[in-house]
Amino acid sequence: MASAAATAAAAPLRRSLLPSLKPSCLFSSLAPSLHRLSLPRALRPAGPLPSDAEDSDDSNAGDGAAEPLRKSRNDLKREARRAVQWGMDLAKFSPLQIKRILRAASLEREAFDALMLVKRFGPDVREGKRRQFNYIGRLLRGAQPELMDTLIQALKDGDDSRLLALMNENTFLMEDEEIEDLPHDEEQPSHAPLPK
């Protein structure tokens, strides 16, 4: 008797749902829709847009052998982990050695200050060290990877001659760039008469 009452109560609910459904809604998946066919299904285009190809200055932009427009996420993560590892390696050295490496890699004073801060943390500051090393890694990401690896390895091995050679080579390159950036004054005569 209770089941008959439940069936009777459910029957009006089922009947009330059916008239609200329109036949066009029931069979909408079968009928082709114009707005569905015009929109692309992909989130981003499969290849570079024609406007992107025009913007590139490469001579081989049209033959498909061009470099990708940006690095993959895996490459970016790999570079970030490498920079954090550089920070961990640098924190093991003395402040003078850190200064020499950062100067050779032409990095800013901010990276040196961040490394000195992480060296002051005690052994119980685990989360703070992790965050600080991530920050140091972000500061070091702009460095040349081969140069940083070579400088750190030379310092670990105690190879001062190789370290000095790398530092001098990098210093000469920096001086050459600075000389090229200086403005040339062509208006002044080279042999001006001396005042009497």
TrEMBL record:
It holds the Pfam family DarP. It comes from the Eukaryota. Residues 45-74 are annotated as: Disordered. This is Uncharacterized protein. It comes from Oryza meyeriana var. granulata.
